[in-house]
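Section: protein folds

Sequence with per-residue tokens
===
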Amino acid sequence: MATTQINTTINGEDYTHEVEPRLLLVHYLREVAGLTGTHVGCETSLCGACTAIVDGQAVKTCTMLAVQADGADITTIEGLAQDGELHPIQEGFWERHGLQCGFCTPGMIVAAHQLLERNPSPTEEEIRHGLEGNFCRCTGYQHIVDAVQYAAEKMQG
């Protein structure tokens, strides 16, 4: 099968690879770039486990082809921590028990990251609305909401 060269910046690092035109971005991130924090869930855009930031937008990477990301700036869950320190959202999930099995956690954290960029001080209702495209089967969501509230407070000082 024919391949296409793509160039991306992922978590501040430049990547160039030959990919098949049908390769989904989630599989590119995991299998080609080796960034396995982005999880493969439903592959139908329902669960949000595969969420990453692509050019400033939270994107379910199972809905996007890798070739569509040519030239894109991508941030995955691995790119949020800086210098060995957890991002406040990651810390919030730890401190407020916002995870159980952990499968949905990367997508939840990335979606929360975009939410807090757009609205640094969201209400509980706004947090729930901002995360409604991501499903968790374990926590019942309250701890996730608490984690995002923790992060919002910490990020504001």
User: Anything to note?
Assistant: The chain has two domains: 4-79, 88-156. The mean pLDDT is 96. The domain at 4-79 is CATH 3.10.20.30 (Ubiquitin-like (UB roll)).
